[in-house]
Amino acid sequence: MATRIGRREFLAGTAGAMAVATLPAPAISQSKPVHIGLLTVKTGPLAAGGIHTGGNPAGTKTKTQELVERDHVDMIFGPLAAFELLAITDYAAQAKMPILSLAAAEDMTQRRPNPYFVRASATSSQNMHPLADYAAKELKFKRVITIADDFAFGHEQMAGFQRVFEDAGGRVVKKLWPPLVTPDYTPYLAQISGVDAVVQGFAGSNPLKFMKQYQDQGLKLPVLGGGPAGDEALLKSYGDEAVGMISVSAYTGDLDTPSNKRFIDGIVRDYGNIPGLYAAGLYINGMVAEAALEKTGGKTDDREAFIRALRAVALVDTPRGPFSFDHFGNVVGTFYIRRCERKGDKLVNTTIKTYPKVSQFWTYDEKWFLAQPVYSRDYPPLKS
Amino acid sequence: MNLWLVLAVNSVTLGGLLFLLSAGFSLIFGLMKIPNLTHGSFFMLGAYLATSLIAHGVDFWTAAVVGGLLVAVFGGIVERLILRRLAGAELAQVLVTLGLSFMIADVCLMVWTGDPIRIATPSALRGATSVAGLGFPTYRLAISLIAVVFAVALWALLDRTRLGAMIRAGVDDPAMARVVGIRVSRLFTVVFCLGAWLAGFAGVIGGPILSVYPGLDGEMLPLALVVVILGGSGSLLGSLVGSFVVGFLYNFGQAMFPELAYVVLFLPMLIVLVVRPQGLFGRPAA
Amino acid sequence: MSRLALGVALAILAAVPYWVGGTYYVNIASQVLFYAILALGVNVLAGYAGLVSLGHAGLFGIAAYAGARIMNEGYGPVGVTVGALAVTLLASAIFAVLALRGTGLGFVMITVALGQIVWGVAYRWISITNGDNGIAIRGRPSPLGLSLTSPAGFYWATLVVFLLAVATMAVFVASPFGASVRGTRDQPRRMNALGYHVWMIRFLAFLFSGFWSGVAGLLYLYYNQFVSPQAVALTASAEALLMVIAGGTATLLGPIAGAALVVIMKNVVSAYIERWNFVLGAIFVAIVVFMPDGLVPGARRLWRWARASARPALRSVG
């Protein structure tokens, strides 16, 4: 089962439901190879956390047990979906298993921290805080309607947007929550009017469906979107309806750094696809693991020392730019505001503003932030 | 009150699409007593096949008809090879059609990957049409029209042709139909292919609105189920009315009672089943 | 002879943690056992009563949710078990009253609708269920001071409950009540004419079935220490039914074999086969087409056939 695969293949590998990869330990190491368990979904990067098909918490738990108890991996990459992560976090903490996950569940690095958890991507709201700042201060929007999938990731995103947007003087006048499985968004689209913009927080294949139906319905208001909505990997599936959409992301394809160029070229060469947020996230997790292993001399036996090394990683040249971790193991890094544009026959994101060193607490005091209830469907409440 | 008008018009267009999807399901359910759980897969398969045809330069409408035909051929094979061995065994039918839907979903994932695929709206039907001073998506209005045409055509088929008479006889009393010399077996294949074709065709027609992605099958199947239960199986009028009822429930229910969005279809279905198990337009079981 | 076989089977089952090779497989064995309990419960309706339910994951999930809520209120194992099972029985009674309005496909459809409504509530009623994030419980309970934390400890506890379930099923099948349930399946009109209260018999069968589904749901909760809406989804109901049909309806061993097949396929085989969803689907189609009664009766027939064809050969030798 412990297939030996090269680093690039592994880092882009979102194909198998579960895999064990063997990273060649850094040269300084004389010790055994390092085994990494990969928990992901079968439906490709765009299943966006397996929300539609693969995601099944009980199954994830079993897979995790398999990686820990049978394959004796040294760390786990994944899972993508918040509810899968929540299903395994207690077990993984008991087993002292380091997890490098892309799942965005807020409380994993806030009110319910796991000491063996590292998140180099972002919390649900970490993206949305800068987007809200941009919407209020640069775009001068006053009133918006939010619409997102009716599950925790959508709730947390929109709540984060609302807090920062309203603190900057804006107003969220309505929050719409179509169920995750909604073939037709028209009943919700029909309720959109009388605002400056629409903020959408859809994930998976839903952003595509939403934008198409939005255009069909003749709506012309500007659209702001979260990470999955403007994801580079999704752009090839969009038509003109996405042109002009402003999105925020922890990763952007147009970031001009050597490592981003290496990353994109590698994926395009091996898979023929433009990589997006999820492939980048796995790649960056690989870089984090590599940097930590270099520091421990390839050793993972002392789990406490290894997790300390993981959380102490601070990198400058990565596909997502410079970042480090806070004491919860959550990333402090750059976030990018992009506008979707047509270049020839392709859609691309063009970065229009960068927010460096964004923490999960934005500019708020950490203690104050943690004393508030966790972001949810009804918190912060709408102002009447 | 623009909101209500938009919802009403959209209820009709969604109803139209649901009619295309569920008419075949209803016929199969009514005539053959098969709860065809692959019906959502037929819908998805038709749409996927059409994306490939369109990518090879075939125009949208041809792709819709041919995509449907390919699905019909597949449906025919399934019916002749597997389903006919299982006549009367509901449990086995449920299991086989469910197993087939797993297989179809996995094959689609393998062939068309997990990325969603967009089907472009036919160019003549892009944009909005003005009705009573309000703009409505032209393509959606066209779907309603297509549904009406199909409803009339299916009605004519069932009510005015020999084949239709045989199907009706089969629905009403299969044993008697056999006695009077109707070859029910061949009839079953024809009906199953027709139903599969309708589902595949509906998948393509729905493509410009829904796009195609893994899991689409599972989203559409419950809708077809609810339509048939509300309308009653084996009744064309039933599935027509059921489709529009579901269209209205879906649109107005989600907009007016967002708290009930998850049960807005299943609660009415449950009530109908409990109060009137044969559906609004079905006949009581013998 | 059969008593000896039973003894050997018991010894093998009890010794699973020693020979199965690693805690991972012990955990898989525990899953097989509690899914087998669910399948046994579904079989009461689908097999003996001829009522195919596609809503049993709803009952399974209600028990798990109720158990998680009660446990997080600070109650001990007895309170959790009694409370969760009482809630499940109540839910079963409501399910039964509604679903028994129909038979055949009507019954199937009503159970589908009920299951979907439970799913909708689990997903949407966030204040009770915590929505899609689900509810976690802190650790497994320790009934009678026995720790269930280790995989082997949990396996043995599950095994005890499982054997209890099997024994109850055996008694049920042999009892007059079991006979009358089968009667309502095969000859409902005659049963009615004979003075049996068909509705009441089916109702009680539903409660019995719901009870064991609830027990399985509780074990699922203890095993995963977590429950979320996926546990009550339609696919979960379908899987339970697949176990029953694949193994063989209206047999005692069928649902157990079916549960083993599905759980092992899902967890072990899927790690080796990339396209295991396809394989799973294909296996179900193959079972229905080639072993229409399910694995256990199919295997039995195969065995009899093999013996019958072997005997003349033996005789010619002797």
Plain-language structure description:
- The complex is a heterotrimer of chains A (384), B (286) and C (318).
- Chain A has 384 residues and is an alpha/beta fold.
- Chain A folds into 2 domains: 7-103 and 275-319, Rossmann fold (3-Layer(aba) Sandwich); 124-254 and 334-371, Response regulator (Rossmann fold), CATH 3.40.50.
- Chain A has helices at residues 7-12, 57-70, 82-94, 124-137, 152-167, 186-189, 206-216, 232-235, 258-271, 277-296, 303-311, 366-371; strands at 18-23, 34-39, 75-77, 99-100, 117-118, 143-147, 171-176, 197-200, 223-225, 246-249, 323-325, 331-343, 346-358.
- In chain A, strand 6, helix 5 and strand 7 (171-176) form a beta-alpha-beta unit.
- Chain A is globular and about 60 Å long.
- Residues 1-18, 24-30 and 42-54 of chain A have low confidence and may be disordered.
- Chain B is globular and about 60 Å long.
- Chain C has 318 residues and is mostly helical.
- Chain C has one domain (23-246).
- Helix content of chain C is 78%, strand content 1%.
- Chain C is built from 15 helices and 2 strands.
- Chain C has a two-stranded antiparallel sheet with strand order 1-2.
- In chain C, helix 4 packs antiparallel against helix 5, helix 4 runs parallel beside helix 6 (104-124) and helix 9 (176-186) packs across helix 11.
- The model of chain C has no long low-confidence stretch (mean pLDDT 88).
- The chains are: A alpha/beta (384), B mainly alpha (286), C mainly alpha (318).
